[in-house]
Design brief:
- It is built from 13 helices and seven strands.
- It has 289 residues and is α/β, with parallel strands linked by helices.
- It has a single domain, classed as Rossmann fold, CATH 3.40.50.
- It has a seven-stranded mixed beta sheet with strand order 3-4-2-5-1-6-7, with helices on both faces.
- Helix 2 packs across helix 13 and helix 7 packs across helix 8.
- The longest helix is centred in the N-terminal third of the chain and has 28 residues.
- The structure holds adenosine-5'-diphosphate and magnesium ion.
Length: 289
């Protein structure tokens, strides 16, 4: 009898442990990847990467949300949305004056959702500075909707301001697009330093997800040199996929379209598809490890 009861207790204990393991596993596997696309340098391809990664992940059947945290609103107009008169301003959501659900928009002819940004974000940034827990505003805004998505891509402004800090606090990964130029590495150390500070103080989940070489010319000796240095310093965090300079990528935003919908056979479209595949592959092998 005692033995029987002991066996029963043992079995229940095993079940409990198994359920815990399964839950931890599920939590990890289904955790939404929230990616801040950040680099305080302007013109390095943050917006182009946010928009086209969103489109590439969406054709791979991932549920995607793109959040435009740049007052220039280029990611918003780049997908055919209006940055001046959205239904609800993202700034109002960040300031706690509106519900995030009401600010969600669907990008025309896709199943990608967006929180469009625009000039209102400049005022929001100033007002946020006076608020308590100002660096957690985006994190809180996304809390009720994040589980509806596999990927959330946050397009950051070209500075390490409070909007970027909000993106880094809300994110669990940072994608750093960069051009392989002489000064690129100098700027990187400031960004890596900020990521480290935020990781220690506000967001222990934050990590550099990958470095992406944009407007890449494999024939240039400088590009090869910078690539070598990046690979030495960042190892496998440097994506194998690089994005070539491609005129279709530059033209697509003026039509309000991701390049996949503008010219799906272009080198730019294929490069972002390859990047999305590499990203998914890397995530899967991390999860399996
Ligand atoms: N791979 C590329 N090939 C050609 N033009 C590009 C490429 N990536 C970005 N661009 C162009 O370079 C400019 C800056 O890119 P953008 O994505 O807006 O940079 P950021 O958001 O970092 O300021 C834009 O005009 C964009 O269309
Ligand atoms: Mg931009």
């Amino acid at each position: 009898m005692y033995k029987k009861q002991g066996g029963w207790v043992y079995q229940k204990w095993q079940d409990f442990v198994n359920v815990c393991i399964l839950q931890i596993h599920l939590e990890y596997v289904i955790m939404t990847k929230i990616i801040a696309v950040a680099n305080q340098k302007g013109g390095v391809g943050k917006t182009t990467s946010s928009v086209n990664m969103a489109a590439s992940l969406a054709v791979m059947k991932r549920k995607v949300l793109i959040v435009d945290m740049d007052p220039q609103g280029n990611a918003t107009t780049g997908v055919g949305l209006n940055k001046h008169s959205p239904p609800v301003l993202l700034s109002d959501v960040l300031l706690g004056d509106a519900n995030v659900e009401d600010a969600l928009q669907t990008i025309p002819n896709t199943n990608i959702m967006a929180l469009g940004g625009g000039p209102d974000l400049t005022i929001a940034e100033l007002e946020m500075m006076q608020m308590a827990e100002r660096e957690y505003r985006l994190h809180k805004a996304l809390a009720s909707i994040k589980d509806n998505f596999d990927y959330i891509l946050i397009d950051c402004p070209p500075s390490l301001n409070m909007l970027t800090v909000n993106a880094l606090v809300a994110a669990n990964g940072v994608l750093i697009p960069m051009q392989c130029e002489y000064y690129a590495l100098e700027g990187l150390s400031a960004l890596v330093g900020s990521i480290e500070t935020i990781r220690q103080n506000s967001n222990p989940k934050l990590e550099i997800m990958g470095l992406l070489r944009t407007m890449y010319d494999p024939r240039s000796n400088l590009a090869k040199d910078v690539s070598r240095q990046l690979s030495e310093y960042f190892g496998e965090k440097l994506y194998n996929t690089s994005i070539p300079r491609n005129i279709r990528l530059a033209e697509a935003p003026s039509h309000g379209l991701p390049v996949l919908m503008y010219d799906k056979r272009s080198h730019g479209a294929l490069a972002y598809l390859a990047l999305a595949a590499e990203m998914i592959r890397k995530e899967a092998s991390r999860e399996a490890a």
